[in-house]
């Protein structure tokens, strides 16, 4: 099982190995709208807790930040799903909160995923704690991110040129929700950020503006370090009603996407919003498509064929999704295979389609179920 990683480490460190392919890797080709013979597949959160090899590393590196900020460890974890499943995309093992310390905000993530941040809820706290500089040097402040991406890029070109390297960032509203709540606010419906929206919107706009500018720089840093696609996450924006979404979410989504496109127009961008009271059933798909992204990642609360119809006026926007992660966890494998084939039939012949889950893979998902999903996709031909 570890032979692929061992070969990868050899060629990335020595620069030797098979000569690189002149054609683009499959997933990148699809994101650019090129015609291919099959649909690419990867899984959100594919590198992490559901894998036995990852849990073995946890014993040696007990904190998430140790694992994500130690280049050799992050690189190894990023490659584990490629080695185990042969996925078409390798995504950086990191977190959307990773750039926060460079902005002046420390954070902690427990092994169960619980996030802890000293909250920012006033203008005074914002001005004191969030760094107000024109451009943070992420190459210096987050040098471990660039180191991992550069090594992954070199290694993939030599040992797995058909595999696409994916970076990712959080979008301003979702990051701001952590800063204001000091934790994941979904459990109690984001009371503090709602209070800011209603009572001190200028403070929230100032925070969102700073975050947007920094996220653009951070995403471009990932691209310049080797990421071929960037996925942007506004995970919690589906919990905000349409009025506030139009004020505090959508403008900053557009700002980040357009800022990235200005500097790297040829790098495809995928956008994802987790299912929530105002986004489930595809209610925010058009808004996401209008941000200027290349691909909208669809959650599992809507059939992908219906998502196609909703976005029929957006010919240049592709789709990613959307197997239910609970089905992937619970099975049985016949049902995983059947549902995956149904999704594939619904997008047969359509360009710019990527198979994924409707949310991140659940930590207690059996590896054999994930393998069944990936292999079912890869055996299907357009």
UniProtKB/TrEMBL annotation:
EC number assigned by the record: 4.1.1.37
GO-annotated cellular components: chloroplast
Pathway assignment: Porphyrin-containing compound metabolism; protoporphyrin-IX biosynthesis; coproporphyrinogen-III from 5-aminolevulinate: step 4/4
GO biological process: protoporphyrinogen IX biosynthetic process
Record keywords: Decarboxylase, Lyase, Porphyrin biosynthesis, Signal
Pfam families: URO-D
Domain Uroporphyrinogen decarboxylase (URO-D) residues, every copy: 40-49, 166-182
Predominant place of localization: plastid
GO molecular function, one term: uroporphyrinogen decarboxylase activity
Catalytic reaction annotation: uroporphyrinogen III + 4 H(+) = coproporphyrinogen III + 4 CO2
Subunit-structure text: Homodimer.
Protein purpose: Catalyzes the decarboxylation of four acetate groups of uroporphyrinogen-III to yield coproporphyrinogen-III.
Family that this chain belongs to: Belongs to the uroporphyrinogen decarboxylase family.
Name this polypeptide is given: Uroporphyrinogen decarboxylase
Organism of origin: Fragilariopsis cylindrus CCMP1102
Lineage, highest ranks first: Eukaryota, Sar, Stramenopiles, Ochrophyta, Bacillariophyta
Gene coding for it: UROD3
